[in-house]
Design brief:
Layout lengths: L2 H55 L7 H5 L1
Length: 70
Protein backbone atom coordinates (compact mmCIF):
# COMPACT_ATOMS: atom_id res chain seq x y z
CA UNK A 1 0.00 0.00 0.00
CA UNK A 2 1.24 3.44 -0.84
CA UNK A 3 1.01 6.49 1.41
CA UNK A 4 -1.73 7.86 -0.84
CA UNK A 5 -3.77 4.68 -0.34
CA UNK A 6 -3.43 5.01 3.43
CA UNK A 7 -4.45 8.65 3.28
CA UNK A 8 -7.57 7.83 1.25
CA UNK A 9 -8.37 4.96 3.61
CA UNK A 10 -8.04 7.30 6.61
CA UNK A 11 -10.20 9.94 4.98
CA UNK A 12 -12.89 7.38 4.17
CA UNK A 13 -12.77 6.00 7.69
CA UNK A 14 -13.03 9.49 9.17
CA UNK A 15 -16.03 10.28 6.99
CA UNK A 16 -17.71 7.01 8.02
CA UNK A 17 -17.17 7.81 11.71
CA UNK A 18 -18.59 11.33 11.27
CA UNK A 19 -21.63 9.96 9.43
CA UNK A 20 -22.19 7.36 12.16
CA UNK A 21 -21.94 9.97 14.93
CA UNK A 22 -24.42 12.22 13.12
CA UNK A 23 -26.84 9.31 12.70
CA UNK A 24 -26.59 8.49 16.43
CA UNK A 25 -27.24 12.15 17.29
CA UNK A 26 -30.26 12.26 14.98
CA UNK A 27 -31.75 9.09 16.49
CA UNK A 28 -31.12 10.33 20.03
CA UNK A 29 -32.78 13.68 19.26
CA UNK A 30 -35.88 11.98 17.89
CA UNK A 31 -36.16 9.33 20.63
CA UNK A 32 -35.44 11.42 23.75
CA UNK A 33 -38.65 13.53 23.61
CA UNK A 34 -40.72 10.38 23.11
CA UNK A 35 -39.00 8.70 26.05
CA UNK A 36 -39.73 11.73 28.22
CA UNK A 37 -43.40 11.57 27.26
CA UNK A 38 -43.55 7.86 28.04
CA UNK A 39 -41.81 8.41 31.38
CA UNK A 40 -44.29 11.17 32.30
CA UNK A 41 -47.20 8.84 31.49
CA UNK A 42 -45.67 6.06 33.60
CA UNK A 43 -45.15 8.46 36.50
CA UNK A 44 -48.76 9.65 36.30
CA UNK A 45 -50.04 6.06 36.21
CA UNK A 46 -47.91 5.12 39.21
CA UNK A 47 -49.23 8.12 41.14
CA UNK A 48 -52.82 7.19 40.29
CA UNK A 49 -52.24 3.59 41.38
CA UNK A 50 -50.68 4.75 44.64
CA UNK A 51 -53.65 7.03 45.31
CA UNK A 52 -56.04 4.14 44.64
CA UNK A 53 -54.12 1.93 47.05
CA UNK A 54 -54.20 4.60 49.74
CA UNK A 55 -57.94 5.15 49.20
CA UNK A 56 -58.58 1.40 49.44
CA UNK A 57 -56.77 1.28 52.78
CA UNK A 58 -59.18 3.79 54.33
CA UNK A 59 -62.12 2.16 56.10
CA UNK A 60 -65.55 2.92 54.65
CA UNK A 61 -67.61 5.53 56.50
CA UNK A 62 -69.80 4.02 59.22
CA UNK A 63 -73.48 4.86 59.07
CA UNK A 64 -75.31 5.04 62.36
CA UNK A 65 -78.61 3.26 62.84
CA UNK A 66 -80.72 6.46 62.88
CA UNK A 67 -79.69 7.43 59.35
CA UNK A 68 -80.44 3.92 58.04
CA UNK A 69 -84.07 3.94 59.13
CA UNK A 70 -84.83 7.32 57.54
Amino acid sequence: MSPDDLQHLGEGLGEAVRTFRQAVTDVRNSVDPQMQTIQAEIDAAQKEIQQSIEAAKEPPPVQDESSKSS
